[in-house]
Specification:
By secondary structure, the protein is an alpha/beta fold. It has twelve helices and ten strands. Helix 6 crosses helix 7 and helix 8 crosses helix 9.
């Protein structure tokens, strides 16, 4: 006989865990029964970043910045964060122009993720600026994609003027590569876990979730038609061949989002690129690893005043 106390001690399965386990079954079922409907669902998921609670260390990094909204040409208000030296000169804060480094987060990320790079770059003499892209962090919106990230990055960089450098992660690094090819002015860049091939990524993601490759192709077509921009036009290794900026590329051998081989191809195609491979950090821990942060700060060194 089961007593009340013993039955009450049984662990209960969390509903969220059950839902996540059911996603591959749902994806496979939709792929078989209605590839077109499955493609609509996958395209929806592919362009909807998940917001996450801001960790304490990221909140502390953001509290060290001064925040303000930046109104884009579209009218959208973009949260902008700026770090610069707080040293006083004759009792007045020094507001003289400083060489600027822009920090660009990836898909599903936020400016706070990039905050670890601010302090060492500010100490070296730079002004450091970051932003929450639409549908990320504190920004409004629910939908995002690489084409949208590209346009926002270009507009922010243009507002800030010629940049001393850019530090970008994942999908944000892909946007920076495309922006450089379209004329973004930056003396040098540091890219962490860049995503060089969006077409390859959507194919891998479909497999991981449980969608068929037919659905991946149909979903890609939907996104391309929406933005009138083929994924092939954003391929990093193709664009890199025409770039002259020096680039530091950090990639972890254990990254499960972006294969090391794709990043090696990107670095080989970029005339001024230096690839450094880490181990055991995966895709996101690069952003808070002391060694990676120090490598980026050392790469930029002391600024050259314009």
């Amino acid at each position: 006989m089961t007593t009340a106390s013993s039955s009450g001690s049984r662990p209960r399965r969390r509903p969220a865990a059950s839902v996540f386990k059911a996603i591959p079954l749902i994806a496979r079922g939709f792929s078989l029964l209605s590839p077109g409907l499955a493609a609509r669902l996958f395209a929806y998921l592919f362009t909807r970043p998940m917001r996450q609670k801001l960790p304490r260390h990221e909140r502390e990094w953001l509290l060290q910045s001064s925040g303000r909204p930046l109104r884009l040409a579209s009218g959208f208000l973009l949260p902008l964060y700026e770090w610069r030296s707080s040293r006083l000169a004759a009792g007045v804060r020094d507001e003289a122009p400083l060489p600027t480094i822009l920090l660009v987060h990836g898909f599903g990320g936020r400016a706070g993720q990039m905050g670890g790079f601010a302090a060492p770059l500010v100490a070296a003499g730079y002004r450091v600026v970051s932003f929450d892209a639409p549908a990320h962090g504190a920004a409004a919106g629910t939908r995002s994609s690489l084409p949208e990230m590209l346009e926002v990055t270009k507009e922010v960089a243009d507002r800030l003027g010629p940049l001393a450098g850019v530090v970008a992660h994942s999908n944000g690094a892909s946007a920076v590569i495309a922006a450089l090819a379209q004329g973004l002015r930056a003396d040098r860049v540091a890219l962490l876990a860049p995503m060089p091939d969006l077409e390859s990524y959507i194919s891998r993601l479909a497999t991981q979730i449980g969608f068929s490759q037919q659905v991946a192709v149909l979903a890609q077509d939907r996104v391309e038609r929406r933005f009138d921009l083929p994924f092939g036009a954003l391929k990093g290794s193709t664009l890199a061949a025409q770039l002259s900026q020096p680039a530091l590329i950090l990639q972890d051998s254990a990254d499960k989002i972006v294969p090391l081989s794709e990043v090696e191809t990107l670095a080989a195609a970029w005339p001024g690129a230096e690839l450094q491979v880490t181990a055991g950090l995966g895709h996101n821990r690069l952003l808070r690893d002391a060694g990676a942060i120090a490598a980026v700060a050392a790469y930029f060194g002391a600024p050259t005043l314009r």
